[in-house]
Amino acid sequence: MQKLLWLGSPFFGAELRACGWQDVTLHNFGGGCVFGWHDLVRLAGFVPDVLVVADKSQPPFVLGVENFPCLTVHYSVDSHIHSWQPFYAQAFDICLVSLRDHLARFSGPFLEQERVWWSPPFAHERDQPDPDARYLWDCLFVGTVSPAMPRRADFLRRLGERLSGLHVVRGNYRQLFPQGRVLLNHCEHGDLNFRVFEALGCGGCLVTPRVGHGLADLFVDGEHLVGYAPGDVGDAEFRIRFLLEHPDVAAHIRAAGLAEVNARHRARHRAQAFTDGLCDVWTHGHEALVARRRERAGAVLEKSLRLLYLHWAEECVDAAIRQAYLVAAGGRFGLD
C-alpha cells in the first residue's frame, strides 16, 4: 500500500502500520484549527496517497477537500450528535461510519452507497483484564454523568435507589473495570458506544442496552454480554441481580465476551478491514474515483458544503477560522 496521513482522533490509525502501508503518519491536534492541502503535506512530510479525516467531535477542520488530488476518507463516529457530518462526507471518496443504522444518511448525491462502509467500534490493545484485580463493587458504571446527559442521570439515579450495590464513578476505565462484578453501560443517544467493546476487552461481564446499530450481529445476547431494554430500570435491575446471584453464569459471559473481542473486535481488526477495503479500491482504479470527485467539486461545494461552511462561520468566535470558512464557502480554499 501507499503513503497515508491520518488527521484527527487516532482510533485505529496506529495499527495500520502493521498492515503493509509504505508510510503512516498520524496527527492529532487541539481545538481551533483548520487545514488545507498544503498544510497537510507539510504535516506529513510527504504528499499523501490517502488522507483519513477522523472524527474529533469538532466542526469541519479540513477545507477544500473536494479538490484534493489524493484518495480521501472521512471517518464518522459521532453522527448521533452531529447531523452535519453526512453533508460534509459528500466531499470525500469514501466514508467510514461507526453507527450502522446511520449508513443510509451518508449515502447521497456525491457519495454512493457502496462507498459508505460500516466500521464498528472496537477495543484497544491496552484494554485487557487485570489478573491481580479484586472485586470492590457488585455493579460498576464508569462514565460521565452530568446535566448534559439527563436520561443517563435519571436512569442511574432510579437504578441506584433499587440496587444498593451500584457504584457510579468517572475515571480510568482500564483500572476500574476489573474491580466490578457486573459492568453497566448506558447510551444517552441510543448509540453503540466504544464502552461496550472496552468493557468486554477488559474481561467484564457487561450489561448494556439493546441499542441496534449492529450490536446483535456483533455479539450474542446472553453469551457475550447481557442486554436490557433501553431506559428500562426494572429490566436492567433484574439482569444485574441474576448475574450477581449466578456467578458461574457471569464468569462464562466474561470469558466468552473477551474471547469474541480478541477474535474480531480489536483495533487491529478494524485496521486490517480498512486496509483490505482500500486495497480493493486501489486495484479497481482509485484514480478515476479521485478524478470524478474533482470534476464535481463545484457541485459538491454548491449542494453540500457551502451552507455548512457559512453556518460554522457564523458560529465561530476565532476571526481567522471564521475567515477560512468564508473563503471555503466561496470556493477559494483550493490548492494554490
Task: Explain what you see.
This protein is an alpha/beta fold. The chain has helices at residues 37-44, 85-89, 103-106, 150-162, 173-176, 194-201, 215-218, 233-245, 247-264, 267-283, 286-295, 297-315, 319-329; strands at residues 3-8, 23-27, 50-54, 71-76, 94-97, 116-118, 137-142, 166-169, 180-184, 206-209, 226-228. It is elongated.
Average pLDDT number: 96
List segments where confidence is low: pLDDT < 50 over at least 5 consecutive residues: none
- SS elements, strand count: 11
User: Based on CA inertia axes, which overall geometry fits?
Assistant: elongated
N- and C-termini, Cα separation: 28 Å
The biggest sheet amounts to: 6 strands, parallel
Based on CA atoms alone, the radius of gyration comes out at 22 Å
Strand order of the largest sheet: 2-1-3-4-5-6
What fraction, in percent, of the residue positions are helical?
25-40%
Amount of beta strand? 15-25%
Count of DSSP-assigned helices = 13
Order of helices and strands: EEHEEHEHEEHEHEHEHEHHHHHH
Please identify the structural class as seen in this structure: alpha/beta
Task: Please describe the structure with a list of short key phrases separated by commas or semicolons.
elongated; single chain; 336 residues; 11 strands; 5-stranded parallel β-sheet; alpha/beta; 13 helices; 6-stranded parallel β-sheet
Write the layout of secondary structure elements.
Elements: E1 3-8, E2 23-27, H1 37-44, E3 50-54, E4 71-76, H2 85-89, E5 94-97, H3 103-106, E6 116-118, E7 137-142, H4 150-162, E8 166-169, H5 173-176, E9 180-184, H6 194-201, E10 206-209, H7 215-218, E11 226-228, H8 233-245, H9 247-264, H10 267-283, H11 286-295, H12 297-315, H13 319-329
Parallel strand pairs: 1-2, 1-3, 3-4, 4-5, 5-6, 7-8, 7-9, 9-10, 10-11
